[in-house]
């Protein structure tokens, strides 16, 4: 294809427009910048000069390249200059009437073949296009901030946009070394549509005091490998901006999960807009600073001290049990590995030995430490041997009847004062607790797979858990170098309750033919910095496991938006469970 759009006008040279202008000029295109007035034009030019000078300082651009690209950019305040452009990119503030009147004027000024693109995040591209007499040549081009480093570009078609115009703009994006994805006209498009629904749930979780802001953020960073926690991210984005995007999403979807959490409105009303105003969910050193500072805690009361833990028992012989035994043994705790038979326990210990061996081979563990850890692990086929353990961690099958039976048995065996923990990820901890005569001593310890590598442990207290039992587990986590977060006993705890609705939203987007598997995965990786796209993750986790968690969440909260997407149910019914069966959202079968 011929290189599209040799001359591009950029209207509005603020945060986004200035970045877009520089990216276009770097690709050798002529750029006609238009600002609202002469002062704004001067300021915009200053911004472009300053940002390119920084790029030279950081070695991203040579001085010659900078001079060449600056020579390609003109900045003025007369919109008529846009008549010389092949494409106009609008990047003025997010205001529908402003954008509509601007497009009406551009429509009068520009020749009929000129393509007009809006940079809106959450406004209706269709309504902007309707202000012109050329809706087939109007589309959305959604760059991400900062433009120079973010590779994602969402190319948004309305029902009237011509395929040719969309393909030309996608080609333009590729020539800027960006990755274009195709989206339809819906508030938030792909990346923000999925991201903001999740951020909203995190805000609501904080608001309900289910967990602290630090714990919610740590859980999503450490449990899912996200670059930032949701509340810190809301502060970065700006609470007002987030609320506006969510309002626009709700107006279109009528999905209650998109209705801005009340706390967002309160923060905005109080002028606590996030980093830019020095305070949002967190308090910062100064407005604009990224450094959060601790606040005075008026009602902080001393915490109970934990019970002493010397010997630990772990019940189970599967992946989680073996991984958890490894965590404790490596930290120097003697561990009884208790399975249903001596043989199963021996096999699990052999598995553990292989895992330690791999760590040695990778240079992460010395041979002495390997031997010391292995010597601390005693396999047994009899739960009776757990009588002396100070803490027993249960990691058997995810089946309530099986777990309750085990807890009843442990109740008969464990010494008084022993802490009994379950690693369940989707069953109520309280149901394990009530199988014993000592529910105060029962707590949840939700490890993540692989346990030796994943830092996060969700510490789940029921309404009956004693404070010193929770404290015991929190202290132990610190000793075995895990990061504990505290939460209550409800479906999904923190991580799964925030993660799976997002995965479900992605499936729904696919099911509605809004975007493709590849484009959705690309949008989340490049637009939000996620380590994996939602479909990659679903295929790894397993579609059956994901469906079960979504059903449990829906069952608990009865929120219509949490109902599992029928497409997921269909794939599970068809036996497409992800990587483990060779096929899920993608085909993994070897060719
Ligand atoms: N900031 C982000 O992270 C981000 C990311 C993606 C998309 N967007 C979207 O990009 C668009 C621009 O946002 P921004 O953050 O760059 O805003 P901004 O406030 O930084 O910049 C807007 C610029 O437009 C100028 N302007 C206002 N009215 C004008 C007019 N009539 N003619 C010409 N120029 C005019 C202003 O002087 C200002 O320089 C918005 O639609 C926004 O939603 C923003």
The major β-sheet equals: 8 strands, mixed
Quaternary structure classification: single chain
- Portion in helices: 40-55%
| Structural class estimated from helices and strands | alpha/beta
Number of helices: 22
Detailed description of the structure:
This protein has about 600 residues and is of the alpha/beta class. It has 22 helices and 18 strands. It has helices at about 15-25, 40-55, 65-70, 95-110, 125-130, 165-175, 190-205, 215-225, 230-235, 240-255, 260-270, 320-330, 340-360, 365-375, 400-415, 430-435, 465-480, 495-510, 515-530, 535-540, 545-555, 565-575; strands at about 5-10, 30-35, 75, 85-90, 115-120, 140-145, 150-155, 180-185, 285, 290-295, 310-315, 335-340, 375-380, 390-395, 420, 440-445, 455-460, 485-490. It has an eight-stranded mixed sheet with strand order 3-2-1-4-5-6-7-8, sandwiched between helices. An eight-stranded mixed sheet has the order 13-12-11-14-15-16-17-18, with helices on both faces. The protein has a two-stranded antiparallel sheet with strand order 9-10. Helix 17 (about 465-480) links the parallel strand 17 and strand 18 (about 485-490). The structure holds nicotinamide-adenine-dinucleotide (NAD). Nicotinamide-adenine-dinucleotide binds near residues 12, 119 and 120. Nicotinamide-adenine-dinucleotide binds near residues 44, 91, 143 and 145.
Chain-wise SSE layout:
Layout: E1 7-11, H1 15-26, E2 30-34, H2 38-57, H3 63-71, E3 73-76, E4 87-90, H4 96-109, E5 115-118, H5 125-129, E6 138-143, E7 152-157, H6 163-175, E8 179-184, H7 191-207, H8 213-224, H9 230-237, H10 239-253, H11 262-269, E9 283-284, E10 292-293, E11 312-315, H12 319-330, E12 335-338, H13 342-361, H14 367-375, E13 377-380, E14 391-394, H15 400-413, E15 419-422, H16 429-433, E16 442-447, E17 456-461, H17 467-479, E18 483-488, H18 495-511, H19 517-528, H20 534-541, H21 543-557, H22 566-573
Parallel strand pairs: 1-2, 1-4, 2-3, 4-5, 5-6, 7-8, 11-12, 11-14, 12-13, 14-15, 15-16, 17-18
Antiparallel strand pairs: 6-7, 9-10, 16-17
The protein binds nicotinamide-adenine-dinucleotide (NAD).
